[in-house]
Amino acid sequence: MKKQLIVLFLSMAFLSCSNKKKQDDTVLSDKAVVTFVINDLPEAHNFDDDIYISGDFEGWSGGKAPFKLHKKNNQYSISITKKAKTISYKFTLGHWDKVECKINGNPIENRTHSFIKTRDTVLVNIVNWSHPNQKSKASTASKNVHVFAENFEIPQLQRKRKISVYLPPNYQSAKARYPVLYMQDGQNVFDEKTSYSGEWEADETLNEIFDETGFGLIVVAIDHGGDKRINEYSAWDNKKYGKGEGEQYLEFLVNHLKPEIDRVYRTKTDNKNTGISGSSMGGLFAHYAAVKRPDIFGKAAVFSPSFWYAETSFQFTKEQPNHSKFYYLVGEKEGEEMVNGTNKMVELMQSNGFLPEHIHKKIVPNGTHSESFWKTEFKQAVSWLFVNE
Questions:
Q1: For residues 213 and 27, which has the higher predicted lDDT (pLDDT)?
Q2: What secondary structure does DSSP assign to 351-374, as a single string?
Q3: What is the per-residue pLDDT for 10?
Q4: Which PROSITE patterns match (predicted)?
């Protein structure tokens, strides 16, 4: 009996130590810091230029002052505290027109870092900087993609934005009307030349769907607002990132852009034939738009939504159930925060009046926070939302 008590005591002591270690690890991880050091730069790099880190942890702004790298003796570095278990990022010269790229000028995939140490250092090699007029970067947009407007007015925000439109292959020869999908981050939707992290290849995918099924879809791609991107794609204020402008941006889509698209093109104007899509912060906005205005957007492709950015989004959603169709996508390699946020939102919707059969959730084990991931899933999302209903 005495021996058994000793064994029991030792076991309890071991468990207590283990639990304490887990708690200590959690505390340490919350204070984790990674230092990025630029180890190598292109030979032609001008050391008078400032370098910035931009990523999902600061809204993919392209270059905010707090994230400018420190420069000493031509050595660039910056320390970032833990924002999420895994972050995605790239380096720029202050704008997405000048972002790190491959030696031939084509985009590289987003870099990622997982916080597994209290203190960590990452050495970074940058082989080239992109340039807006870089000759080696050829346009990859299909012939049925065109620029609708270079400077379309957003009166609610007193800004202007480039709008691009994809038309189905038979648009000119047929008299049919077509459903419409409004996509955020328009720079990355059709063309590698305008993208800063690769393109979705939405035009090639939709041409393929048309060839296989005869289904045609109009896509309206709206460029994001650079350093205003994170604000425009959130309807809620954030203490760290500033005022949310998503409500005004949604009003722009509903009251200004959509009426003009419906006037110019042969569209099916009802909500069952109108969808909205986006990724990351754009995914948060696509979710918000379909919840807020189901009378306009009856379908939403919500890729890697940044629900972590706006905790208020959960209560907002709970209070406004509707019958729109929602397609959620997230990759496990995007980190627990992204996966858990998507799971939480879907569970909340299914138990609070949204139709379970109108909600599709897909979690991909090897999925990353990148255009290369989203483009591979775009066909399935469009098929579920539009083609196979």
A1: 213
A2: TTTS-GGGEEEEEETT--SSHHHH
A3: 41
A4: PROKAR_LIPOPROTEIN
Number of domains the chain is built from: 2
The per-residue pLDDT of the chain, averaged, comes to: 89
Give the residue ranges of DSSP H helices in 306-370. 312-318, 336-350
The Cβ of residue 30 has, within 10 Å, a number of other Cβ atoms equal to 11
The DSSP 8-state label assigned to residue 30 in this structure reads H
Whether residue 170 is contained in a domain is answered as: yes
57 and 205, same domain (yes or no): no
Could you tell me if 254 and 114 lie in one domain? no
Please say whether the beta carbons of 78 and 111 come within 8 A: no
Structure tokens at 184: 């955020």
What is the number of alpha carbons within 13 Å of residue 38 lying toward its C-beta? 27
Judgement on whether residues 174 and 313 belong to the same structural domain of the protein:
yes
Contacts of 246 (CB under 8 A, 6+ apart): 232, 233, 234, 235, 236, 285, 288
Token pair of 257 as six digits: 């852009």
Q: What are phi and psi of 131, to 5 degrees?
A: -140, 140
- Residue 2 pLDDT more than 60? no
292, 235 Cβ separation under 8 angstroms: yes
- 73, part of any domain: yes
- pLDDT tens by residue, 87-97: 889 999 998 88
Assess if residue 196 is contained within a domain. yes
In 244-286, the DSSP E strands lie at 274-279
Check whether residue 72 and residue 177 sit in a common domain: no
Q: Are 365 and 254 contained in the same domain? A: yes
**What residue numbers bound the domain in which 94 lies?**
30-125
> Three-state DSSP class for 131?
coil
User: Do residues 361 and 270 share a domain?
Assistant: yes
Helix then strand then coil, in percent of the chain rounded to 5, is: 35, 25, 40
Better-scored residue on pLDDT, 23 or 81: 81
pLDDT per residue as tens digits for the range 281-316: 999 999 999 999 999 999 999 999 999 999 999 999
